[in-house]
Amino acid sequence: xxxxxxxxxxxxxxxxxxxxxxxxxxxxxxxxxxxxxxxxxxxxxxxxxxxxxxxxxxxxxxxxxxxxxxxxxxxxxxxxxxxxxxxxxxxxxxxxxxxxxxxxxxxxxxxxxxxxxxxxxxxxxxx
Length: 127
Hints:
mainly beta; 7-stranded mixed beta sheet; globular
């Protein structure tokens, strides 16, 4: 059984930092693209970052570029999202996702392309 578990969310003041973790069981991150999505209340789920674990190439949405850093530890089968300079607009539930057929990060991210999801971790940024 594939299971993704996100952790590290919480309440933080604007300007603060958090590090999210996504750990997997039943699925090997190495060789796959792992994506962090987020969903704010009343909004669609959006991709904020992706890492191609085979070569380390990354993608960031314009809204987080320069503030968030994605990384992977293939030995630990874990992907991280270091979030800095947090803004109230970053408040959302953050999910990690992957699929057997997606090995590299692309330009576009459709939630329907991903079979495996975590349960999400809440990030709340106060002003």
